[in-house]
Design brief:
By secondary structure, this protein is an alpha/beta fold. It folds into two domains: about 100 residues, Urease, subunit C, domain 1 (Roll), CATH 2.30.40; about 280 residues, TIM Barrel (Alpha-Beta Barrel), CATH 3.20.20.140. It has ten helices and 20 strands. The strands form four sheets. Strands 1, 2, 3, 4, 5, 18, 19 and 20 form an eight-stranded mixed beta sheet that branches. The chain has a seven-stranded parallel beta sheet with strand order 10-9-11-14-15-16-17, with helices on both faces. A hairpin with an 8-residue loop joins β1 and β2. The chain is globular and about 65 Å long. The N and C termini lie far apart (about 45 Å). The N terminus is likely disordered.
C-alpha cells in the first residue's frame, strides 16, 4: 500500500516578526513553510520551529511579508534612453521589463500592480508561467482615456493608451483591454493642459460607471488616474475601486471615499525630489491630501508610480522609499501595513498575500533593523522568499 509523503517543512528564524496586519511585533520568531505556503508564523517556541526538516537562520533580522507596490509602470525604460516615454522598439522594451521585474523581486517586492504598459500583460504571463522571475501581479495593459485626456501630450502614438469618447466607445475600449488579458482596468479621468498631472475632469460619472461595470462583470477591479475634486468625485460615484494619486479633493469627496471603501494610492515617490516650482507645489498638495485622508480613516495602499524613466523612479530597492515617505505622514506601523495587508486588499489578493499568516503564500522578506524604528531599512532587504522559493539569501 502506498504511503503518503508529507512535504518538507522549513523554519525561517528571525529576531523579530511583523506579520503585516498591524499587530505587535513578535520577538524570537519563526515562519514555518511547507511547499509554497505558510503553515505557521509567530514565536519560534510556539510554532514548532525546532521540529522542521530545514532551518534558515536569519537572526537578528526582522521577518516581514513580501512588500507590495500597488502602482508601477513596467515600460522597459532607462534614464539613459533617449526615446520618448513608452515608445521605441517593443522587443527591446519587453526584454528590459523582464529585468525590471527581476529587480523588483530581488528588492523584496513579491507583488505589484502594473498601471498601464504595452508589455505588461505578456510579462505577467511569462512570470506566472515560470519562464522568468518576477512579482505576482495584477496588470493593466492598455489604459483607457479620452482622446484629449491624460497622457495625450506625452504619448501621441497611444502605444499604451486606448482613446475612447462617449459611453459606447468606453465600453468597447474596456472590453478590448480585458480581452487582451488585462487583469486590472486602468481609466484616465483627469488631465492638465499639457500633461497627465492635471485636475481637469475628462469623464462623466456615467462613462466611468460603464467601464467599471464591465470590469466588475469580468471579476476584475478598476483603477482610476484622478486628481482634483471633480474628477475624483465623479470616479467614486462611478463605482471605481481604487483612486490613484487622488489629491486636491474636498472633505465631502474624501467622505465619499471613506464611506464607499475606495482605496487611495497616493504615489509620493515620483514627485518628492522634483525641484521645479510645479513639482514642489504638486508634492505639497499630495502630502496635505494624504494627511487629511489618513486622519479621516481612508484605506491607503502603497504605490510609487515608478516608471524607470527618470533617475528617481528606477525599479528596485528605491521603490521602498515610499514606506519612508508615507511614514513622514502616518504612524510607521500604518505605513508598513499600507505596503502589505492593505495593498494586497487593493489588489483583491488578500486571501493569498500581504500578511504572514497560515495558508498564505510563503512570500517572506527580512531586513536587518527594526522597520518600525527605521523605515529606510526596507531599502536594504537581506532575504527574499517567494512562494517557498529563496530568491535572495544573505
Amino acid at each position: 500500500m502506498a504511503t503518503e509523503v508529507s512535504e518538507r517543512r522549513t523554519a525561517i528564524l528571525g529576531g523579530a516578526l511583523f506579520d503585516g496586519t498591524g499587530s505587535a511585533t513578535v520577538k524570537d520568531a519563526a515562519v514555518i513553510v511547507a511547499g509554497d505556503r505558510i503553515v505557521a508564523a509567530g514565536a519560534a517556541a510556539e510554532v514548532g520551529a525546532a521540529s522542521t526538516d530545514e532551518t534558515i537562520d536569519l537572526r537578528p533580522c526582522t521577518l516581514l511579508p513580501g512588500l507590495i507596490d500597488a502602482h508601477v509602470h513596467l515600460w522597459g525604460r532607462s534614464p539613459a534612453d533617449r526615446m520618448p516615454w513608452a515608445t521605441g522598439p517593443i522587443e527591446y522594451r519587453a526584454l528590459r521589463t523582464a529585468g525590471e521585474a527581476r529587480d523588483l523581486l530581488e528588492a523584496g517586492f513579491t507583488a505589484i500592480r502594473g498601471l498601464g504598459s504595452q508589455t505588461g500583460v505578456s510579462l505577467k504571463k511569462a512570470i506566472d508561467g515560470g519562464i522568468i522571475p518576477g512579482p505576482r501581479s495584477r496588470m493593466a495593459g492598455m489604459a483607457v482615456a479620452r482622446t484629449r485626456g491624460p497622457w495625450f501630450a506625452i504619448d501621441r502614438s497611444w502605444r499604451w493608451v486606448r482613446p475612447a469618447d462617449g459611453i459606447d466607445e468606453c465600453i468597447k475600449a474596456a472590453q478590448l483591454s480585458l480581452l487582451e488579458g488585462s487583469t486590472l482596468l486602468k481609466i484616465g479621468a483627469s488631465a492638465g493642459h499639457d500633461n497627465a498631472w492635471g485636475e481637469v475632469p475628462t469623464y462623466s460619472i456615467e462613462e466611468v460607471q460603464a467601464m467599471t461595470e464591465i470590469a466588475h462583470a469580468w471579476g476584475i477591479r478598476a483603477a482610476v488616474h484622478a486628481m482634483g475634486d471633480e474628477a475624483v468625485r465623479r470616479s467614486v460615484l462611478g463605482g471605481i475601486d481604487t483612486v490613484e494619486h487622488g489629491y486636491g479633493i474636498t472633505p465631502e469627496t474624501l467622505n465619499l471615499i471613506v464611506e464607499r471603501g475606495v482605496f487611495l494610492v497616493p504615489t509620493l515617490r515620483l514627485r518628492h525630489r522634483d525641484e521645479t516650482e510645479w513639482g514642489r507645489a504638486t508634492f505639497k498638495s499630495q502630502v496635505e491630501s494624504l494627511e487629511r485622508a489618513y486622519k479621516a480613516g481612508a484605506k491607503i495602499a502603497l504605490g510609487t508610480d515608478s516608471t524607470g524613466a527618470e533617475q528617481d523612479s528606477t525599479h528596485g530597492a528605491g521603490n521602498a522609499i515610499e514606506f519612508k515617505l508615507l511614514g513622514d505622514v502616518m504612524e510607521p506601523v500604518d505605513a508598513l501595513v499600507a505596503g502589505m495587508q492593505t495593498a494586497a486588499e487593493a489588489m483583491g489578493m488578500e486571501e493569498d498575500i500581504g500578511t504572514l499568516e497560515t495558508g498564505k503564500y510563503a512570500d517572506v522578506v527580512a531586513v536587518r533593523d527594526d522597520p518600525l524604528g527605521d523605515l529606510e531599512t526596507l531599502q536594504h532587504v537581506q532575504f527574499v522568499m517567494q512562494g517557498g522559493k529563496v530568491i535572495v539569501r544573505p
